[in-house]
Amino acid sequence: MDASALFPSGLGWEAVALLAVVALAAGWVDAVVGGGGLLQLPALLLIPGIQPVQALATNKLASICGTATSSVTYYRRVHPDLRTALPMAAAALLGSFGGAILATLLPAAVFKPVIVVALLAVAVFTAARPSLGSETALRFSGRRHYGSAVLIGAVIGCYDGLLGPGTGTFLVIALVSVLGYNFLEASAKAKIVNFATNLGALLLFAPHGAVHWGLGLVLGAANMTGGYIGSRTAIARGTGFVRIAFLVVVGVLIVKLGIDVWTEDVAPLLAR
To answer: What pTM was estimated for this model as a whole?
Structure first.
């Protein structure tokens, strides 16, 4: 394998160590409530000379290590219902392929304003209802429950293939608000589904040589550590802690995407 496929050219070990620290923090955040990519991907994009597709692909390799670890940890301690999680994950994997195809046809800027508005609505809705997600009270049963789960997986998987930031967060709020799970159970299922979306994206990126495998595996080890600690923290602290972490991550995601909309859409229009 070409050395350039392992690490970006000129990347020193000091920078790799710093990126590993970021990946550990990202793994913790992702395991608790999703949104770790908000830390990890921007850090990768700061590497001199790296192409955006290489940053995305390497981020997916690191993230799949973390989501695998947190999925196993949650499963052993929370025992999420796989009859819901696995069909949802399969639909999400297929949806991520569709989203990646859609990304080649439509610019991400078309969707970002809609996502910001949706996140604002989610934040207000969650903050205004302190009891939301405190206990599991499933809203559907039988085929309607599983059909809703598969639809959620397909839609959010498509979003992950198209844009990506906050996929785990969207999964958590959908599982809580649409299906009626508490925040802890929602996080457990979200990790399994998020593993599938990461796998779908990685299967697309890998054959095209976009992954820096050495860097991705180093960050993956750090992400695994963060994922293990984060999932144990969420399990120990419970649903209330996860709810607060969820609101914090949603707030950060709103700011991040809001800045993107301003710099990519609004500012160029005002400059004309």
So the answer is: 0.83
